[in-house]
Write a structure and sequence with these properties.
- There is one protein chain.
- With 204 residues, the protein is mainly β.
- The protein has one helix and eleven strands; from the N terminus they run H-E-E-E-E-E-E-E-E-E-E-E.
- Strands 1, 2, 3, 4, 5, 6, 7, 8, 9, 10 and 11 form an eleven-stranded mixed sheet that branches.
- The two termini are 33 Å apart.
Length: 204
């Protein structure tokens, strides 16, 4: 059982490698939205801009659930990702912080433009230490090309990841697809869907 679990974690790590890569690095489309209905193998998704897309999955797809976490769960040495807004002092005000399982260490490492909201940035790296700041905890996150201070406020969403199941994705489920390819019939296909469990939802 242990070996099987480790193989699953390794598969998740590999499949999520492109989670935080800039969109320009891939010939794919990101999809954020809510499942409106399910027509057989097709997820009909209303995207955040109000359009409707039809999404299918490849053979042997992965379903990854986002679950709530707490700031107190974050310890020095953990690998995290954060989307946020740059501040005048060079720090990044975190809109969300994602705690990566150890199997996902290195996912999308770096600091770069992100499209959660206009002018947002993504920073993925190793937590060096945490201190208490004026607005909340401040995480010092180091990545291969530098270091950023992430300011975590009471409004910051903190989540982590667990293995999920297809049958947990129902109408009303919020999803994020990092890498969907458009098909000849106009639908999109992906090897992985990340979704919010029990009404939670990825912001991304």
């Amino acid at each position: 059982m242990v070996d099987k679990f480790l193989r699953v974690l390794a598969a998740v790590s590999l499949a999520l490698f492109c989670f935080a890569l800039p969109a320009s690095a891939q010939d794919t489309t990101r999809i954020r939205g809510m499942v409106e209905r399910i027509d057989g193998p097709v997820f009909v998704v209303k995207t955040r801009d109000g359009s409707e897309v039809k999404l299918t999955v490849t053979d042997s797809p992965l379903f990854v659930a986002i679950v709530p976490a707490k700031m107190s769960d974050i310890k020095p040495g953990m690998f995290v990702g954060s989307a946020g807004m740059m501040q005048e002092d060079g720090s990044q005000k975190a809109i969300e912080v994602h705690i990566f399982p150890e199997s996902m260490r290195g996912t999308g490492e770096g600091h770069y433009d992100w499209d959660l909201v206009p002018k947002s940035k993504m920073t993925n790296g190793n937590v060096e230490h945490a201190v208490t700041g004026v607005d909340g905890p401040v995480l010092s996150v180091k990545y291969k090309d530098g270091e950023k201070k992430l300011v975590v406020t009471p409004q910051t969403v903190v989540v982590t990841y667990e293995m999920g199941k297809r049958d947990e994705i129902l109408p009303g489920t919020k999803i994020f697809v990092a890498a969907a390819k458009k098909q000849a019939d106009g639908t999109f296909q992906t090897p992985r869907i990340t979704y919010g469990r029990n009404g939670e939802g990825p912001a991304f």
